[in-house]
Amino acid sequence: MTERPRLFDKPALDRARARALAAAAPGADFLLARVGEDLVDRLSTVNRRFERALEIGSPTPALAASLVAAGRVGRVDRLDRLPQALGSGGIAGDPEALPLAEASVDLVVSALALQWVDDLPGALVQIRRALAPDGLFLAALIGGATLGELRTALTTAESELTGGASPRVFPFLDVRDGGALLQRAGFALPVADTETITVRYADLFALMRDLRAMGATNVLAARSRRPLPRAVLVRAAEIYAERFADPDGRIRARFEIVSLSGWAPSETQQKPLRPGSARASLADAVRQAGRSPQEG
Amino acid sequence: MAEIDRPASRIDPKLLEMLVCPLTKTTLDYDPERQELVSRAARLAYPIRDGIPIMLPEEARPIEEP
């Protein structure tokens, strides 16, 4: 395999997620729970049943269970890099090296996991290949506007106090790239949309505790190996409170959730007609539409 | 010690059907004795621990024979 520059330090990511799993802080999964509900809702609008499903990268069986409970899915297998996330059954694996046979599943679902892959286009291609024709891919990822306030506060504090700054919050997917990525990966009917969830905290330290509980600490390969000096954190907390607080003093943190969906191409799917193949004139349709209010 | 702890082939046959080598996407041979999934193409044996196939190349055992 060719060596490419790595964005994420996978062993560090595994350790951060394993720590978060072991701690199992109550309520730390609020984002995941919210996103999972949304994925199940999205699935319930699709009028068909999926016999074989794969769930990628959520730390608990909750999402897989609610997929089955919603009644549209037969069997769900789970895939995660951490065997301890799988409990009694599943596949320990990486979405960047997906160990699934071609056309072996009808549905792939992933909640808040795919932002941690180095090669998202490559992972999407592998997911599309694992899907049977007319199979569905539904995912939610952390998007680019996430934690913008934290990024600003940390970078400003660090450069004020140390004269330089290293990346502390990692770059996420831009929703504008989502649709194009799906299309490049060969998905039909690709859709990307975004939703912002604002969470309020007492201060920056409370926010950072929550991020640790989610296993979402800094795992950038290019991160500074030195921990943030206390003085920088304290200054960042001041900047955060000055710039991003509500009148009651609580601070705001934005999480952007990018949702992706696409279908493995199939002959039976709806497709755009070939240009020039229309049988009715648009001009006639417009004339008729324009007339109808007066006549009706 | 592992002989006693090792559960007799608890891996789900339906799961086995879905799996391929993550690197070469070729079929795997199941070795119930060693509890491994062998990729001849990648010359790697992926371990099965507690019924969970560990399909991570960095966890796999390199094998000699072609």
What does this structure look like?
With 296 residues, chain A is an alpha/beta fold. Chain A is 39% helix and 21% strand. Chain A has a single domain (10-265), classed as Vaccinia Virus protein VP39 (Rossmann fold, 3-Layer(aba) Sandwich), CATH 3.40.50.150. A seven-stranded mixed β-sheet of chain A has the order 3-2-1-4-5-7-6, sandwiched between helices. In chain A, helix 2 packs parallel to helix 3 (62-69) and helix 6 packs across helix 9 (230-243). Chain A is globular. The relative contact order of chain A is 0.15. The model of chain A has no long low-confidence stretch (mean pLDDT 87). Chain B has one domain (8-62): N-terminal domain of TfIIb (Single Sheet), CATH 2.20.25. Chain B has helices spanning 2-5, 13-18; strands at residues 29-31, 36-39, 44-49, 52-53, 61-62. In chain B, strand 2 (36-39) and strand 3 form a beta hairpin. Chain A binds chain B through residues 1, 52, 75, 77, 81, 83, 86, 88-94, 97-102, 104-105, and chain B through 12, 14-15, 17-23, 25, 27, 46, 49-57, 59. Chain B: Belongs to the UPF0434 family. Chain B: This is UPF0434 protein GGQ63_002708. Chain B: It comes from Prosthecomicrobium pneumaticum.
Which terms summarize this structure?
heterodimer, A: 296 residues, alpha/beta, Rossmann fold, 10 helices, 21% strand, globular, B: 66 residues, 5-stranded antiparallel sheet, disordered N terminus, SAM-dependent_MTases_sf (chain A), SAM-dependent methyltransferase (chain A), S-adenosylmethionine-dependent methyltransferase activity (chain A), Malonyl-ACP_OMT (chain A), transferase (chain A)
